[in-house]
């Protein structure tokens, strides 16, 4: 297992800027599983961070090394659930969670790398591996601990068996039309109104039927930006807004109501991702505006409670926040049980590449629909991936390369490894030189 601290200097263009994260350097704590098969595939996985702390995240992945190195590749790939349980069940590391935060994200990165390897060995894209799998085997991949009060293994099996009906037809629809996407690219908080308007119009022209704006820093600015966005896209395109956890419950209600005249489709992360009852109150107060959250929801247990409490209209699972594919299967099954649409979070580094597989599996072999479902798309950093997500007419095209689309180019790893990759070494040397100049001048 090789690990990498990969950071991109995105803060310099304000790409990714929002009310809580004004200067993100989009980063990946990245790992590669190498085997002793000379021509065999490698397994790639990562989790997403936004700069400082990516070294902490890499250290957490390193802490899992003993559970993975030296194991039989065949055993790992036959049953990723086994390794998922071993990683989550490490009793000393579990103290750092349980099942939340840096350690849990590290588990997710490693588990996802195992799934990448498994899918490559089966020569299938991950969505196809999952869609072809026996319902019984998929159920065996889910950890039902703490969720059986909402979803039993028997219910999950029924959902997956029903999901098989019409699977072949939906797979051909997916291959022909892709999976609907929406774009956040116009809406970063640091962009000027002119840039927002231009990008919003471009998004509609490119076939997107929904865009998203970051809000929550200043109400007068938000009113002006929402007005500009609504004018740019017209009445028929959905306009979502995203506060990135900026508000208390009361503020979330007032602020969302103040933006209601622009007909926002959903308010995303109105408050703390841990505040289940707060989300329920916001949802009751701002309807018909929908409430969405999930990119910072720590695990299946919190998702379960959000659904039980009627606190969300939309589940925004993230491929790299929770414990990997196995836990996301649990979350997809919970959402299906409660009949709540999943609109995955993406963007970041490689999150689009990963999460499309989960949504496509859900369409082909679980929920069976794309109605009111869209995957987020953000158009940057895809060039670093060997099999980048491809958008056509506002939809993700189904990836066909074997694996989880997680492989980054070797050259990108070598350039953006922090702090010794070629980009950062030169950048840090330049900063030191600048400091020296200041000293001399002073
Ligand atoms: Mg968001």
UniProtKB/TrEMBL annotation:
For this UniProt record, the keywords arranged alphabetically read as follows: Lyase, Magnesium, Metal-binding
Write out the catalysed reaction.
L-fuconate = 2-dehydro-3-deoxy-L-fuconate + H2O
Name the cofactor(s): Mg(2+)
Give the residue ranges for region: Disordered: 1-21
Q: Which SMART domains match?
A: MR_MLE (SM00922)
Coiled-coil residue spans: none
**Which intervals hold domain Mandelate racemase/muconate lactonizing enzyme C-terminal?**
193-289
Entry EC no(s): 4.2.1.68
InterPro entries, sorted: Enolase-like_C_sf, Enolase-like_N, Enolase_C-like, L-fuconate_dehydratase, Mandel_Rmase/mucon_lact_enz_CS, Mandelate_racemase_C, Mandelate_racemase_N_dom, RHMD-like
Q: What is this protein identified as?
A: L-fuconate dehydratase
What organism is recorded for this protein?
Streptomyces flavochromogenes
């Amino acid at each position: 297992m090789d690990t990498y601290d990969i950071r991109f200097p995105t803060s310099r263009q304000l790409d990714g800027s929002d009310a809580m994260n004004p200067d993100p350097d989009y980063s990946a704590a990245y790992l590669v599983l190498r085997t002793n098969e000379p021509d065999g595939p490698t397994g790639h996985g990562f989790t997403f961070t936004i700069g400082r702390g990516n070294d902490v995240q890499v250290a957490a992945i390193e802490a899992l090394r003993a559970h993975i190195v030296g194991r039989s590749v065949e055993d790992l790939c036959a049953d990723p659930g086994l390794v998922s349980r071993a990683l989550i069940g490490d009793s000393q590391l579990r103290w750092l969670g349980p099942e939340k935060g840096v350690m849990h994200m590290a588990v997710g990165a490693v588990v996802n790398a195992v799934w990448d390897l498994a899918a490559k060995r089966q020569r299938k894209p991950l969505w196809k591996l999952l869609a072809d799998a026996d319902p019984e085997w998929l159920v065996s991949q889910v950890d039902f601990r703490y969720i059986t009060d909402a979803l039993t293994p028997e219910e999950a099996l029924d959902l997956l068996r029903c999901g098989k009906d019409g699977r072949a037809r939906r797979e051909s629809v997916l291959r022909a039309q892709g999976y609907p996407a929406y774009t956040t690219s116009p809406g970063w908080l640091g962009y000027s109104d002119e840039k927002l308007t231009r990008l919003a119009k471009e998004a509609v022209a490119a076939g997107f039927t929904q865009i998203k704006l970051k809000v929550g820093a200043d109400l007068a600015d938000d009113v002006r930006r929402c007005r500009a966005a609504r004018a740019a896209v017209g009445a028929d395109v959905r306009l979502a807004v995203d506060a990135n956890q900026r508000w208390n419950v009361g503020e979330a209600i007032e602020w969302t109501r103040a933006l209601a005249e622009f007909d926002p489709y959903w308010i995303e992360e109105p408050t703390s991702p841990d505040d289940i009852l707060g989300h329920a109150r916001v949802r009751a107060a701002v309807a018909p505006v929908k409430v969405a959250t999930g990119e910072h929801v720590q695990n299946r247990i919190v998702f379960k409670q959000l659904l039980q409490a009627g606190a969300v209209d939309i589940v925004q699972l993230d491929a790299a926040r929770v414990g990997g594919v196995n836990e996301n299967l649990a979350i997809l099954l919970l959402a299906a049980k409660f009949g709540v649409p999943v609109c995955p979070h993406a963007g970041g580094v490689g999150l689009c590449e990963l999460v499309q597989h989960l949504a496509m599996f859900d369409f082909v072999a679980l929920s069976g629909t794309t109605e009111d479902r869209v995957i987020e798309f953000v158009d940057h950093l895809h060039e670093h991936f060997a099999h980048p997500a491809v958008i056509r007419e506002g939809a993700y095209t189904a990836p066909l390369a074997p694996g989880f689309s997680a492989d980054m180019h070797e050259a990108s790893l070598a350039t953006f490894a922090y702090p010794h990759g070629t980009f950062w070494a030169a950048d840090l040397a330049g900063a030191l030189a600048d400091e020296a100049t200041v000293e001399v001048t002073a």
